[in-house]
C-alpha cells in the first residue's frame, strides 16, 4: 500500500498531483506541466546545448556540461561537470535515462559506473534487466571527481588525516587543541585552493538543479533516479524542486533529510550509535556461535577485543612490507578499532574480520593492517582521498554550531553512548563549525517531493551509517512513499539481496511497488562463513 498523506499548504506547498503522472514501464506521452518549483533560484539559465559524447570505455561514453555556479546568476561563473553514459543494452526496448548518485558525498559517479562490471554483489550494482532498459547516466556532482574536485590539504596533511595512530580513548583521537589546529589548517587550505563562491555553491539544491540541466541536455522529459546513501538526499531534493520531471525514484540506505539540513551534531551521534550496533551484532553472533565456530575471545569476544585494542595501543605490532600489498608500518589500537568498525558494518566481511582479529591476537597484524589501509576515515563511509570533497559538501548543507561547548557536549555523549565507536564521531564536525564559505540561500524546507510519483525507500535493519529509523522518517516526510526493509547488517541493499533486487527492478522498470512495510529476509550473519554473492 502506498502512503499518501495530505500536508498543510502553508508549510508544504501544493498537494500531491497524482493525476499528472502515469505509472507505466515506459516514458509517457502525457504533456509535462511547466516546472515552477526551482526553490531558491531567481532568474533562469539558458537551455543547455545538446551533449557531445565520445567513447571512453566498453559501452561507455563521456561528455562535459557547463552549469552556472550560482543559478541566481545564470550568466556568471560556470562549472564544468563530468558525465558518463552506459547505453541501454536493449535499445529497442529502451525506457529512458536513469541518473544515479552512489553517495558519499564525494564518491564520483563516473568512477562507480566504470567499475560496475567489477563490483557484482555490492550495493548499487544495477541488474542486467535495468542495464538493458535504461541509459545509465553518471554525473560527478560539482566539487567531486571530474567536476572540479575540492582540494584542501597537502599530500602530507592527507597522510596525517589518514593516520589514526592516536589514543582511541581520547574523543576524536587527538587532544582538542590539536583538533582545532587541524580544522583551521583544513578550512584555510580550502579557500587557498578554491574560491569561497565555489565552496558555497556545493549544496545539494544546486546538485539537483545540475541534474535537471543534464536532463534537459539529454532531451528527456523525465528521468528515473536511483540514489544510495547521500544520493537519498539528492533524490528527494530533485523531486521537491522538479517533481514533474521524475518518472520513478528509488532511495537506498536513506538519510533523514530533516536531520541532514539541521544541526549536524545529533546526526553524527545517530551515525555513531548505528555503527556501534553493528559491532555489537558481530560480538553477539560470535558469542552465540560458540568457540567451535568463532574462537576469538574464547566465549567473551567483547572482553578479548578490548584487551587486544589496549595491548596494541600500548605496544603496536610492526608490519613488514609486502610488495604490491602494503608498504609496511605498524598496527596500533586505534587502527585496529577503525578497521574493525568498518568490517563489522557489513555481514559479508565478517569472516575477514574474524580471521584478521585472530591473527592479530596471535601477533600477526598484517591482515588487519592491510584491511585498515583500505577502509575509511570519515564518519560517513568515504575513502581518505574523498575526505575533502565529503567535508565541503556537508558543510555547505549542514547547520553546525560554531561554539565549542556544543561540540564538547556532543563528544562526551558520543563516547558514553557508543563506547567503542563514539571516539571517531566526537569532534567530527569541527571543520564545518568554522567553514569559511557559508551557503546563505540553501534550501532547507522539508523535502516532500509533492507532485512526484511514489518513491521506493529501501533500508537495512542494521545499517552502520544510516539507521533504520531514518528510513521511517523519510517515508513519513515524503508525500508518497513505500518502505521496504532488508534484514541483516550492511549499508545499501540493492545488488546484495534477491528480494530487494526484484522489488527495485520492478519499481525502476515498471513503476510497481511492494506493499508498504514489506520485509526481505537475508542470510543469517556468520562470523566465519565464506562470502557468497547473489546471482543476478
Automatic annotation (TrEMBL):
The keyword Ligase does not apply. GO terms for molecular function: hydrolase activity. Residues 98-261 form the AB hydrolase-1 domain. The keyword Hydrolase applies. Gene3D superfamilies: alpha/beta hydrolase. Residues 421-520 form the Peptidase S33 tripeptidyl aminopeptidase-like C-terminal domain. It holds the Pfam family Abhydrolase_1. Its EC number is 3.1.1.-. Keywords: Hydrolase. Belongs to the peptidase S33 family. This is Carboxylesterase A. It comes from Streptomyces rubrolavendulae.
Amino acid at each position: 500500500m502506498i502512503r499518501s498523506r495530505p500536508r498543510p499548504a502553508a508549510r508544504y506547498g501544493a498537494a500531491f498531483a497524482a493525476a499528472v503522472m502515469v505509472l507505466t514501464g515506459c516514458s509517457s506521452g502525457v504533456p509535462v506541466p511547466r516546472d515552477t518549483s526551482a526553490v531558491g533560484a531567481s532568474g533562469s539559465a539558458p537551455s543547455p546545448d545538446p551533449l557531445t559524447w565520445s567513447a571512453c570505455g566498453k559501452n561507455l561514453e563521456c561528455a562535459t556540461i557547463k552549469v552556472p555556479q550560482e543559478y541566481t546568476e545564470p550568466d556568471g561563473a560556470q562549472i564544468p561537470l563530468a558525465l558518463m553514459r552506459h547505453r541501454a543494452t536493449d535499445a529497442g526496448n529502451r525506457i529512458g535515462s536513469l541518473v544515479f548518485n552512489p553517495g558519499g558525498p564525494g564518491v564520483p559517479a563516473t568512477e562507480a559506473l566504470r567499475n560496475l562490471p567489477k563490483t557484482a554483489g555490492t550495493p548499487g550494482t544495477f541488474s542486467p534487466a535495468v542495464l538493458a532498459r535504461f541509459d545509465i547516466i553518471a554525473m560527478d556532482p560539482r566539487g567531486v571527481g571530474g567536476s572540479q574536485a575540492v582540494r584542501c590539504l597537502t599530500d602530507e596533511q592527507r597522510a596525517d588525516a589518514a593516520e589514526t595512530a592516536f589514543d582511541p580513548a581520547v574523543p576524536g583521537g587527538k587532544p582538542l587543541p590539536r583538533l582545532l589546529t587541524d580544522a583551521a589548517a583544513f578550512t584555510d587550505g580550502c579557500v587557498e585552493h578554491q574560491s569561497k563562491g565555489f565552496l558555497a555553491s556545493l549544496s545539494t539544491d544546486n546538485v539537483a538543479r545540475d541534474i535537471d540541466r543534464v536532463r534537459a541536455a539529454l532531451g528527456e522529459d523525465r528521468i528515473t533516479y536511483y540514489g544510495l546513501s547521500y544520493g537519498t538526499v539528492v533524490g528527494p531534493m530533485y523531486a521537491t524542486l522538479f517533481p514533474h520531471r521524475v518518472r520513478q525514484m528509488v532511495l537506498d540506505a536513506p538519510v533523514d533529510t530533516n536531520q541532514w539540513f539541521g544541526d549536524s551534531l545529533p546526526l553524527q551521534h545517530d551515525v555513531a550509535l548505528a555503527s556501534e550496533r553493528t559491532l555489537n551484532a558481530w560480538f553477539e553472533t560470535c558469542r552465540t556461535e560458540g568457540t567451535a565456530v568463532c574462537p576469538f575471545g574464547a566465549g567473551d569476544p567483547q572482553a578479548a577485543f578490548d584487551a587486544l585494542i589496549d595491548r596494541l595501543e600500548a605496544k603496536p605490532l610492526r608490519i613488514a612490507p609486502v610488495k604490491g600489498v602494503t608498504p609496511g608500518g605498524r598496527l596500533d589500537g586505534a587502527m585496529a578499532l577503525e578497521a574493525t568498525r568498518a568490517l563489522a558494518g557489513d555481514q559479508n566481511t565478517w569472516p575477514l574480520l574474524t580471521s584478521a582479529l585472530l591473527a592479530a591476537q596471535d601477533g600477526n597484524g598484517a591482515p588487519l593492517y592491510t584491511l585498515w589501509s583500505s577502509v575509511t576515515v570519515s564518519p560517513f563511509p568515504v575513502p581518505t582521498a574523498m575526505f575533502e570533497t565529503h567535508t565541503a559538501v556537508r558543510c555547505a548543507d549542514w547547520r553546525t554550531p560554531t561554539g565549542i561547548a556544543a561540540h564538547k557536549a556532543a563528544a562526551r555523549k558520543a563516547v558514553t553512548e557508543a563506547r567503542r565507536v563514539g571516539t571517531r564521531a566526537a569532534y567530527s564536525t569541527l571543520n564545518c563549525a568554522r567553514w569559511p564559505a557559508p551557503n546563505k540561500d540553501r534550501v532547507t524546507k522539508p523535502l516532500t517531493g509533492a507532485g512526484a510519483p511514489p518513491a521506493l525507500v529501501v533500508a537495512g535493519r542494521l545499517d552502520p551509517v544510516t539507521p533504520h529509523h531514518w528510513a521511517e522518517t523519510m517515508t513519513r516526510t515524503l508525500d508518497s512513499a513505500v518502505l521496504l526493509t532488508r534484514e541483516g547488517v550492511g549499508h545499501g541493499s540493492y545488488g546484495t539481496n534477491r528480494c530487494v533486487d526484484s522489488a527495485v527492478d520492478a519499481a525502476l522498470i515498471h513503476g510497481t511497488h511492494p506493499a508498504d512495510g514489506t520485509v526481505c529476509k537475508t542470510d543469517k550473519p556468520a562470523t566465519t562463513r565464506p562470502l557468497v554473492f547473489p546471482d543476478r
